[in-house]
Structures are given as C-alpha cells and as structure tokens.
Design goal:
404 residues, mainly beta, Immunoglobulin-like, 4 domains, five-stranded mixed beta sheet, disordered N terminus
C-alpha cells in the first residue's frame, strides 16, 4: 500500500490567524480489501490554543466521521471497515474553546477483492448477428486502477478467448470480433495485474443469429456435361437485399477441399472458370458478400467437362459381297459425355462420299445401288456436340459382285 500523507497548509488572511486549521491530516491506507483497517492522524493549530505557543491540539475537540455511520473523538484514531465495500468520505472536524470550527476530508476505497473486473460488450442488451462487429470491453478496479481512467489499464494484461472453434485470442482491452456462425458463445476474459500478482476471470455470454436481411444466391442449373475447358457460372441478383459482391467457387469434390478455384469478390452475376480438365466432374457454389461472415452458400451445381470429340470406325467388312444388301458394322467411343450418334458415309468406285444416314446402333443395314467397289467411314457426335473429323482414308472397303 502507498502511504498517503495529506499536508494542508492554510493560506490565511489578516483575520484568519484566529481560526483553527489543519496542518497535517493522514489516513492510511486509503485503499484496500475488505476488511480494511485504517489509522487516522490529525494535527491542528491556530485558534484559541489556551496559550500553547508551539501549536498542537491543546484544548481542541477533534472528531472523526468515517463515512460508514461510525465516528471517533481523538486526534489519533483507528477504524476497521468490516461490513461493506465502497468509497467512504473520512472527515475530521476540529473545534477550539471559542467554538471556531474547521473540517478536512479524505476518501477511502474499500474493495471486495484485490482486483475487480467486469467484462461486457456493446451487444449486452441487443441481439447480435453474423454481420455484426462486436466490440468487447472490460472495466477493472483495484488500488492503483481507476476504472474510468484509460491510462491505468496499461498496468493490466488481457486475454480474450472467443471460444468459437477458431482459436481466436486477443490481448488488447477492447477487441472487435465477428462470429462466422450462429450459436451461443461464452467469451472468456482473463485479466492479470502483475504489480499485485493477481489474475481474475470473467465471461460474456452472447447469442448470435443469422442476419434476417441476408439472402442466398440461386445458381442457374448446369448441364450434366459441358463442352470445352470452361464453364460459365450464373446466379440470381441479390442486390435488392444489400448484396454488393459475390464469391463463386469451383472444386473437384462436393466438400470443396480439392483444388478449389475462387472467383474472389466480384460485383458480377456470372463467372467463367477456365482451364478445366477433360472428363473431370466439377462442383460449383456461390455466396453473397453482404457482411464479413456471411458464409451461407448456395446449393451446389455440378458438371463434367468434355474437351474431346468421339472416335468411331466403320467395319470390318468381308472383301466381297454377293448381295446388294449387307450389314455395315461400326464402333464408337467417347471419354466423357458419350456417343450420341454416328453418321455413315460411302462412295462407289471413288466417285465421292455421300451420307447414308445417322444411326445410334450398329450394324447399319446397307443396300448398294449396284456392283462396284464401296468405301465406308463414320463420323461420331457426342452428347455435348463434338463432331469427329472425317478420316483421310476409308475405314472399311468391299466389292459388291451381285450373283445373278
């Protein structure tokens, strides 16, 4: 405890030398923990001292009011604050034989604990949402710590824990935090006062809800397969609800943990994801950026990329045919969306190719126009529209020699 010595030297005028005055008043200690024992000393001079030339308390009636309903009437007095904590005004009164009076007071703080703290937030009386930035604060009180003097808090050490699964810890007096998910949270605070080797805890309990103004964008449905190495993602406009930007994501798994590609924040209602791999299924989602912690995503859409055309071939055929009607088999494959159809082309005696028709099953029942050398090839089309290029040479050939 700090010894508090209050010395009061009265500034007197020409007629004040006849009035008593305090030359020394001591109340020690003036701050401590309940029960707190203090000793009080008062020295008075001036007034009618009954001829004592050295001053002092001769013939002075000195009384003490300790501010808690108790009093004393000696110049040196002892008192214990035992019943309740608080701030008390200790008043010493001196009266000389002529009835002249002087008073002097001093404040005593009686604390229930060495260090008192009260953790709070600016949402103690309000409903917090995931869009709110919550400001936390603490009021601390101790001998040497005035709760209303900000500079005193430099003597304290703080540790705030948000306890929301993120391991977020703050070591300032007034942290600001936004909770990403709705729920009930118990924010814990530990305050240490190194000068007294004292640490005290407190908590702030909060219920955080979704902001009712938040809306979730709706993705435009994607096809099962997408042609090429890009996908154009589109979604609904949520600007009427305060949304200014969006974030879209693409990933190789529905949990969005593998090879995630993000658009970053964009004011657009569409985003192009490029450089995608053939035959890979990609998953897509989008959310609005209406507040720092709006993490509610849209429903997921998916699509498989198809970069390549299918492959097909006509044949095999026997070297000769003894009938105008014969079957032309074919095979066709596609690595992604699958084969939609196959078109059969033929020529007779090198006279140029013509289409015989489009087919979905093999073999094709072919009818020749007459005898001759017949060449065949096929072109396949997949389910996203890729068309196979025509070959440089026929896939299969045969000679029709009709038997009479």
């Amino acid at each position: 405890m700090v010894l508090v010595l209050l010395v009061l030297i009265a500034l007197i005028g020409c007629n004040d030398e006849n009035n008593p005055k305090f030359t020394r008043l001591r109340v020690y200690p003036d701050c401590g923990v309940l029960p707190l024992s203090v000793d009080c000393l008062a020295i008075v001079s001036g007034g009618n001292e009954s001829g004592d030339p050295t001053g002092g308390n001769n013939n002075m009636d000195i009384t003490w009011d300790f501010g808690d309903g108790t009093s004393s009437n000696t110049s040196i007095s002892y008192h214990t604050y035992a019943d309740s904590a608080g701030t008390f005004t200790v008043t010493a009164t001196a009266v000389d034989p002529d009835g002249k009076t002087t008073k002097l007071s001093h404040m005593v703080r009686v604390m229930p604990d060495t260090l008192e703290i009260h953790a709070l937030s600016d949402f103690d009386e309000l409903q917090a949402t995931v869009c709110d930035s919550i400001r936390f604060d603490v009021l601390a009180s101790s001998c040497g710590i005035d709760p209303l003097v900000d500079d005193n808090y430099r003597n304290l050490v703080f540790e705030w824990r948000m306890n929301d699964g993120t391991d977020s810890v703050f070591r300032s007096r007034r942290p600001v935090y936004s909770f990403a998910e709705p729920g009930d949270y118990e924010v814990t605070l530990s305050v240490s006062y190194p000068a007294l080797a004292t640490t005290r805890p407190d908590t702030v309990n909060l219920t955080v809800e979704w902001d009712p103004t938040l809306t979730v964008p709706t993705l435009v449905a994607l096809p099962t397969f997408t042609m090429g190495a890009t996908t154009i993602l589109e979604w609904s406009d949520e600007s009427a609800n305060g949304t200014l930007e969006y974030v879209a994501e693409c990933a190789e798994d529905s949990l969005f943990t593998d090879n995630v590609i993000s658009s970053g924040e964009t004011p657009l209602l569409t985003w192009v994801f490029a450089g995608l791999d053939d035959s890979q299924t990609y998953y897509y989602r989008v959310r609005s950026v209406g507040c720092p912690n709006n993490l509610e995503w849209s429903t997921i859409e998916s699509s498989t990329q198809d970069l390549n055309a299918p492959n097909s071939a006509a044949g095999p055929l026997d070297p000769t045919q003894d009938s105008l009607a014969f079957d032309v088999p074919f095979s066709a494959t596609d690595s992604a969306s699958g084969v939609a159809s196959v078109e059969l082309f033929f020529q007779v005696d090198g006279g140029g190719y013509s289409s015989f028709g489009v087919f979905t099953a093999s073999p094709v029942s072919f009818t020749a126009a007459g005898d001759g050398a017949y060449d065949f090839y096929t072109q396949a089309t997949d389910n996203v529209g890729h068309i196979e290029s025509a070959p440089s040479s026929p896939d299969a050939s045969t000679v029709v020699v009709e038997v009479p």
